Amino acid sequence: MAAVIRLFRPSSSPFSLIRRSLSTAAVTEPVKSQTYPQNHLPPAVDPKGRNVQWVFLGCPGVGKGTYASRLSTLLSVPHIATGDLVREELNSGSNLGKQLADIVNQGKLVSDEIIISLLSKRLEAGEGKGESGFILDGFPRTVRQAEILDEVTNIDLVVNLKLPERVLIEKCLGRRICNQCGKNFNVASINVKGENGSPGISMAPLLPPPQCVSKLITRADDTEDVVKERLRIYNDKSQPVEDFYRGQGKLLEFDLPGGIPVSWPKLLEVLNLDEQDEKQSVAA
Ligand code: AMP
């Protein structure tokens, strides 16, 4: 609770908190507004010597975590998912966590002030460990959050992952997490026929290894009603964020063609990250 109250003090506004956390990240010249057709993306590492500062947008269940985490390994930058920060707070049993539980379990958004406070703390902790650059997942989720982020640092690229709504619901309902190792799996076998000129989508289940099978849990907010509410809120509050970055020419739209085996190589291709980079990162 104290953290929330602190945010409303003028000397420690969300702006100053996040600005402090990002102070060593590039507050460099603004990135020129441009669109990113395939093959004209910024290089993975900025010529000025800093690591990438990317944002992943997309509806709940689209796979932001999966692809952001793979890219973070490839590019050696932290993958920071605000949903994970919220769940850590819920699991910590703190007063703030208790206060957030109802909001999250109903599929609603946590206030901008609270989410910025959690993100600032995570960035500060990373700064202490010498982290630089980031791939943000699940932030910003409101135009206000995007504006605050814009005031304190330069985002290089915003990847907007897309899947049809029917697939998103099936994916959320099939999602399982191992409560020991924390890895995400999916038991859904998705086979959605093409409609109105858009192609069909098939995704094989992503099954856990034997040691995780008895430890699988389902997120409390992955029930059908709550997923539908989260999608409604995404369309209402987060889609305007797409427009915000589209207006800045930073939005890369990516329609996922299927599961990881087909989507990952395609994503690397549109990001101009070739297979060689991937092999080096796997070998490292
Ligand atoms: P996620 O794992 O990204 O689906 O996030 C889980 C929940 O955490 C969301 O449904 C929200 O309640 C909360 N949350 C995560 N990120 C944000 C954000 N940027 N703004 C507000 N609430 C958030």
Automatic annotation (TrEMBL):
Keywords: Kinase, Nucleotide-binding, Transferase
UniProt-listed SUPFAM superfamilies: P-loop containing nucleoside triphosphate hydrolases
The keyword RNA-binding is annotated on this UniProt entry: no
Ranges in coiled-coil conformation: none
GO MF terms, alphabetically ordered: AMP kinase activity; nucleotide binding
Pfam entry (one): ADK
InterPro entries cross-referenced by the UniProt entry: Adenyl_kin_sub, Adenylat/UMP-CMP_kin, Adenylat_kinase_CS, P-loop_NTPase
Gene3D superfamilies according to UniProt: P-loop containing nucleotide triphosphate hydrolases
Record EC number: 2.7.4.3
Catalytic activity: AMP + ATP = 2 ADP
Assembly and binders: Monomer.
PANTHER family: NUCLEOTIDE KINASE
NCBIfam families: adk
Record-stated family: Belongs to the adenylate kinase family.
Record-given protein name: adenylate kinase
Organism: Cinchona calisaya
